[in-house]
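pinned: reference chain
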Amino acid sequence: MRAVACRDRSVALRRGAGGLLLTLLTALSTLGVVGPAHAATAPCSPDDATACLNVTVTVPGTGPAAGVGLTVAGQGAAPVQVTTDDAGKASVALTAAGDYTVTVDEATLPAGTTLKDPAANPATVTVALGRAAGRIVQVLPPGADGAVEASPTDDTGATATPDDADAAGGEAEAGAEAESSAEASAAPGTNRYAQLLLAGTVFGLLLALASLGANLIYGTTGLSNFAHGELVTLGGMVAFLAVQRAHLPLWLAIILATAAGALLGWFLNRFLFRPLRRRGVGITQQMIVTIGLSLALVSAYLFFFSAQPRPVVSGISQRMQLGPVQISAQSLVSVSIAVAVLALVAFVLARTRTGRATRAVSDNPALAAATGIKVESVISQVWVVSAALASLGGVLLSLYLNTTRFNFGSTLLLLMFAAITLGGLGSPLGAVIGALVIGLVVELSTLVLPNDMRYASALVILILVLLVRPQGILGRAERIG
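pinned: its structure tokens
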């Protein structure tokens, strides 16, 4: 009966949303680290003498695979055999650090299914006491084609550690298009349409936070900053280093990532773009400089971090049921931060002297200077705030999409530009509205399109709207000529 259900649901998936749930199931993965010990029937808690390995076996588009046999071996200890529960999870508590192998008994897989990456079975995972690492194993449903590598993941779907990812053998896809959040998953007890609306709203708010800075820079300088995506990447990478390498708490990592973005924004304006403005370099030439800067930063990220997906956290994030939808506590906190920061920016722009000066410079820099406003000082502040918002957005988007990588911001850049263009260039509120529209279109489009096409659908909507209203939703029509 289970095989028939898997087959029917797989056919329905291909007809409807294609690969919608392919990466969602990473949200079901759990943390783990292996060591000689005993099998656990419930998730264990790592401490100074214990490491945990939580393995999840899933069938994309169908759900967890129960009853799959797993063998954990290493460090000279007797192999530990466990079986996945109804949620497709198995947990092992261990008392020694080192390298261990996780082997899936392919004979126990659901009828008609096969491993997506048989070459990665068994897989080696490096563990440490007091830490949790894990692995998600994906299984091809009957009739499915292609293979996607399984990778070590935590309960949010993020890769557990860089070393574990290397040991698992290989890279994930190089674009964020391959990433998806758990919020888009129509798990049992949820309404699919309501769940996608929630996912679109959450993604839209986080995208608004990341893209707002680019709109502020355009409003005050007229510059379309193509390196803005790399400021987003910076936030995710700094948070990764702070949490995974320096073992700092997440809240402190968020602060450090935001501060790093602000510092880089000040540096770029002080030593690159302000000298260009003083020399009378045109906007087009400055835009080309941002393209070169973007390529340089992407290359730097690739050199220092490699192409492997990098997690920000490796903790367990439980999903909560809210009526017909589910949302993880991690995403709920991220959205709360985004809403609070967006409200603060709106208040500053509308009610403070700095905000009024910023709006004046945006409307007419020459007139603002004539009234005593220090235009360069305002632009410098805008660069700092914009880069800080981008880095903060990068951290929250990394948490939402369960990973970050060297080109994380680049893959989202077109979506950010689509959001600010759709909402109205130079309009902060327009950027928020445009991002919400883009977020909803991205998630809801998966009802009729493959998951890989979801970003393209947003760009199509952008083109259609601009054909009707070229200035965007809240933009001002400008006379040319």
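why pinned: The chain has a mean pLDDT of 79. The chain has two domains: 2-170, 192-468.
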